[in-house]
Amino acid sequence: MELESKHPGPAVSTHDLHGQQLRIPNLRPAFADWHQGINPFYDQAKRAVDARLEGLIADERALAKAKAADIGLFACGWFPDAPYTILETVAFYCVWLFLWDDAIDGASASSVGLVAEEYCQQSVAFVRHHLGLDEPGTLEPKAPTKVCESFAEVGARVGERCGLARRKQLFGHLKEYMEGCVTEYRWRLSGGIPSVEQFYSWRLRTSSVDVMLDLSRILNEISLPGDILESGELAAMGLSVNNLLILINELFSLKKELRDGAYGNLIPITMRWSGLDLDVPEILLTMADSWDFTYPSPLAGYENARPLPEERAEDGKSFRNPQTGVLSSAYEKFIDPLDNGRRGGFDVHIYYFQNNADQSRYARELWERIRREFPELRIYTFWDRPIGPHPVAMFEVNLFTPAQFGAFIPWLAIWRGPLSVLVHPNTTEQDVPEAERELRNHTQRAIWMGERLPLDVGMFRALIRAQRATGTAHSANAST
C-alpha cells in the first residue's frame, strides 16, 4: 500500500508546541448519569491479569508498564455487575487487544512493512480459527506470538456465548482493528503528515470501539433485531461514540506522544491541516467559537420605543404584543446581510452515509421527491462521496426567499427521515473577507437538523491565513 501524504504544511515538531498550554475541560458533568462502579471481584481479576501478563511478557520493564496500566481495573469498571467468569473473559480479551500491536511497535524501520503484514495475516487466520469460522477439520494456524496465542482461550469463551452471526461480526471488526494498526504504523514510519481524513481512515478502526461494543453485546446477552443492528441510526450513534473516545484519547495522549517524538496525534494534524501554526493568539483568532464574533444588539433602532406591556394574551401564558399594523419586511425578503441575489439566502446540505445501502436509497428517493415537489428550487448533484468541507456524501438545495424557506424547511423536518441536514446562510458583508464569512456561516450561524456532523472547515481557515498574509480576497467556492 502506497502512503501519500495529503498534508500541505510543514511537519509538526516538539519545538512548535513547547511551552504552550492545552486546557482540558471538566468532563465529569457530561457523564453524571452514567452507571459507574467497580466490580467487587477486582482483587481476583487483578491477580489473574498479572499472572497472564507474566506469562506473556519477558521484558521486566515492559511487564511493569503493562501491570501499571491495570487492565483488571479497566475490566471491572466496564462490567461493574458481571459475575467473575464474565469479568475474567473481559480482562483476558483486553489483555490480548491491548498487547497485540506491541509486536509491530518492536519491529525495525527497515522490516516493519514485511513484519507487520505477515504478523497481521497470521493473527487474522488464528483469530478466525478460534472463533470457529474455519471449515470443520481445518488445522489450527500457527500463532505468531504468545500474545496472539492467548486468543485461543478468549475465542473459545466468547464463542460459547454467541452464535455464528455474532462471531462473524466480531471477527470482521477484529480484522479491521488489526489491519488498521498496520496502516497506522506505516504512516508513523513514513515520515509523512496525514490529513484529518487519512488519520480517521485508520483511527476509527484502531480505537477498538467496535470490538468493545461487540463484546458488550455478546457477554451482556443483548439481542437486537437485524434491522436495528444494520440501521443508519445505530451506525451514526456508534460513530459518535467512536469520535468522542478518539478525541478524549487524543487530548490525554498529546503530551506523551510529543515527548516520545510521535506526531500522529489528531490535534497537531488538525491544526496543520486547518492552516494554523500553533501560535496561541492565532488559534484563538481563527477557531470557530461562538465568542470569537461580535454581536450587535438586537434592539438597535428600538432604543426609544415604549416599554412592552405586561398584559397576557387569552391563553394566560404568552404576552400580548404591541401591534403596528405592518408585517416585518423579513416576510418578504431575507434581512441583511443574507444574500437575496443569485446565490440565495440559504444552502441546505442533506447528508447520507454513502456506504449504508438504506441511507443511500432513502437519500436518492428524497432527492427525486424534492425535484418533483419543489421544481422552483435550485437542486444540485447527488454526490456519492464527500466533497468540499462535507464529511460524507450529500446533495444541496438553495433557498432564495423567506417563503421558500418557510415552506421547505418544515417539510424537510418531516421528510428528512434518518438523514442529517445542515442549513447555513449565505451572507454578503462587504467589510468581511469571503473566507471569514464562509467559516462563520458554516459554524456559528449554522442550523442543524438531526445528528450534527463534523465539517472539515480547514479550507476556509487556510484561505483566511492566505488573505491575511497577502491582503487578497480568494474565492471559497467548493460545494460549500
Protein architecture, described:
This protein starts with 13 loop residues before the first helix and ends in a 10-residue tail after the last helix. Helix 10 runs antiparallel to helix 12. The chain is 49% helix and 5% strand. The protein has 480 residues and is mostly helical. Strands 2-3-1-4-5 form a 5-stranded antiparallel beta sheet, covered by helices on one side. InterPro entries: DOPA-like_sf (IPR023389), DOPA_dioxygen (IPR014980), Isoprenoid_synthase_dom_sf (IPR008949).
Name of the CATH homologous superfamily of the largest domain: Farnesyl Diphosphate Synthase
Radius of gyration: 27 Å
Number of strands: 5
Structural class: mainly alpha
Q: Sketch the topology as an H/E string, one letter per element.
A: HHHHHHHHHHHHHHHHEHEEHEHEH
